Recover the amino acids of this structure.
């Protein structure tokens, strides 16, 4: 445990965000180890997406610090963080609707490749990796939900990130689509990418993440290995419910 | 380089027009249409590519026109240098307005209103400031000769404005296939997604506005040299703001040839409406407006988009019948 904590790529240090009278994130701290998958779970309205928006620069924290690769990045604008290597996907997918799949991904690929030819090569490679290569010329608007989620992931990968923030990329997918995409996400760690994911699909969290943080009402109420978190009575109280915890324990016993 | 062949063909055809047609009326018509096309291409870079709809491109047109005229008349500057200075000032104004509006995060209708306000403020200032000749306007002295950028022949003016339009087409084409162009279009489609992909949206938009301002200002500079007269209602009037946005919208927003096609169509329509309605005042404008409504109704993506629609329709009719399930798969 100790050696893993030694080298975090991302550290969120007692970050707070207020919206008027509402305390959306309340002194939350978490960290993500290099080339591993860290999950952020919690009930609806816990502040997970707000926390992501602060890490990716779309919102400024009211208090606290965010450190990335040893540097304080609190309050830097999103485009600069993207250049540093932080990519995010959106919970509500945000495709460039009027453009084709390839053109969508090309925008991201251009970040580190000025020339059209190199950018196209990167974009096509990313397309192949996420399994969109047979839909390159399709207009983004016409993709299925699963296709849009893949596109969201592909675009983020096209900027060649070091840290990837995935905001519910599995939500809205059916079990077979989830089975298809889980290995794609797992494979990214092998390519040197650190992942922090917000996810409601617990089976996927259990199978993908090595470390889980639980956010409830803006506070981190628990953290640890997935099985450990799932068994934590505080988490069960706040989020999972007794039935789900028992089921998970049963499935892990097998 | 294959992408530039259409530009070469279109420009070659247009360049040969004065060799065939010697009518001053026709040439005058084409000169004005090309000038509007240039102003419209400026609007198109910002509005069509980057999706920032300006209602005040008169600000750039007027600045180009006034700078060209005032430098010559009041400071004795050479007309060609004045022309260049007008373009530079248009670009600078684009940078200033862009920085002010985009840094403060204005989008959509707020951006449109602020650009309109800039143009109106400039119009009012120009109508009272002594340097612009206030209400009287500025008259450039007749001094025929290439040195003074004044020509007896309409054909020479025609080729000059065609040269400028050609340049604008090449710039539009280059932008379209560059990284900058991809970023502009990304901003148009979804600004937040663009930011997440590392696009500095406000600087990209400001750069677009600088290029846009330079192009529309060039049209204004040309106006001053062609008509040798500028006043506040012409230079900063809403007419040119409307022409500049109407031509790309009619022709095809965000396309390279949209503004040129739109300018020719809109100008033809205007003249045609006058011919049809004769002397009844205002009736031509009603006809003009009605046809515009119909064009936008039937081809929301402009004439170029409409052509693509018709082509697709014919292509589909030509193909053998496909099983229903395949069609549904494409939906």
């Amino acid at each position: 445990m100790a050696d893993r904590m030694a080298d975090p790529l991302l550290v969120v240090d007692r970050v707070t965000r207020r919206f008027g009278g509402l305390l959306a994130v309340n002194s939350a701290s978490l960290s993500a180890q290099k080339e591993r998958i860290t999950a952020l779970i919690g009930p609806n309205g816990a502040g997970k997406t707000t926390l992501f928006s602060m890490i990716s620069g779309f919102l400024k924290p009211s208090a606290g610090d965010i450190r990335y690769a040893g540097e304080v990045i609190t309050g830097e604008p999103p485009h600069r963080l993207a250049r540093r290597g932080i990519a995010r996907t959106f919970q509500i997918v945000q495709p460039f609707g009027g453009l084709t799949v390839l053109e969508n991904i090309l925008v991201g690929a251009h970040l580190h490749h000025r020339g059209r030819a190199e950018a196209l090569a990167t974009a096509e490679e990313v397309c192949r990796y996420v399994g969109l290569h047979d839909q390159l010329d399709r207009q983004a608007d016409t993709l299925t939900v699963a296709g849009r989620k893949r596109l969201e992931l592909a675009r983020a990968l096209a900027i060649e990130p070091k840290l990837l923030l995935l905001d519910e990329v599995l939500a809205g997918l059916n079990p077979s689509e989830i089975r298809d995409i889980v290995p794609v996400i797992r494979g990214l760690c092998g390519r040197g990418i650190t992942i922090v994911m917000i996810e409601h699909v617990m089976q996927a969290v259990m199978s993908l993440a090595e470390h889980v943080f639980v956010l409830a009402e803006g506070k981190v109420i628990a953290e640890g290995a997935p099985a450990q978190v799932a068994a934590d009575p505080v988490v069960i109280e706040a989020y999972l419910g007794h039935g789900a915890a028992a089921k998970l324990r049963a499935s892990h016993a097998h | 380089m294959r992408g530039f062949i259409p530009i070469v063909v279109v420009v070659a055809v247009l360049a040969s027009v004065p060799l065939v047609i010697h009518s001053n009326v026709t040439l005058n018509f084409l000169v004005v249409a090309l000038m509007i096309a240039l102003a419209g291409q400026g609007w198109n870079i910002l509005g069509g590519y980057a999706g920032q709809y300006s209602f005040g491109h008169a600000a750039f047109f007027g600045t180009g026109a006034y700078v060209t005229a005032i430098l010559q008349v009041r400071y004795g500057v050479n007309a060609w240098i004045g022309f260049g200075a007008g373009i530079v000032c248009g670009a600078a104004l684009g940078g200033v307005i862009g920085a002010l509006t985009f840094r403060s995060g204005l989008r959509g209708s707020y951006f449109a209103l602020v650009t309109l306000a800039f143009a109106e403020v400039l119009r009012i200032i120009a109508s009272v400031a002594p340097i612009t000749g206030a209400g009287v306007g500025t008259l450039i002295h007749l001094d025929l000769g290439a040195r003074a950028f004044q020509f007896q022949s309409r054909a020479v003016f025609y080729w000059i404005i065609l040269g400028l339009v050609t340049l604008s087409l090449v710039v539009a084409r280059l932008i379209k296939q560059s990284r900058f162009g991809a970023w502009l279009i990304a901003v148009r489609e979804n600004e937040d997604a663009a930011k997440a992909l590392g696009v500095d949206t406000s600087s990209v938009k400001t750069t677009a506005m600088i290029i846009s301002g330079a192009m529309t200002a060039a049209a204004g500079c040309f106006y001053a040299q062609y008509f040798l007269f500028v006043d506040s209602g012409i230079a900063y009037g809403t007419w040119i703001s409307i022409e500049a946005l109407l031509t790309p919208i009619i022709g095809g927003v965000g396309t390279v040839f949209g503004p040129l096609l739109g300018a020719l169509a809109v100008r033809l329509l205007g003249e045609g409406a006058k011919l049809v309605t004769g002397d009844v005042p205002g009736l031509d404008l009603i006809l003009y407006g009605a046809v515009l409504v119909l064009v936008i109704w039937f081809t929301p993506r402009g004439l170029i988009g409409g052509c693509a629609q018709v082509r697709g329709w014919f292509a589909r009719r030509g193909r053998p019948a496909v099983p229903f399930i395949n069609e549904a798969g494409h939906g």
User: Anything to note?
Assistant: Residues 2-298 of chain B form a domain with the ABC transporter involved in vitamin B12 uptake, BtuC fold (CATH 1.10.3470). Strands of chain B lie at 138-139, 229-230. Confidence is low (pLDDT under 50) at residues 320-331 of chain B.
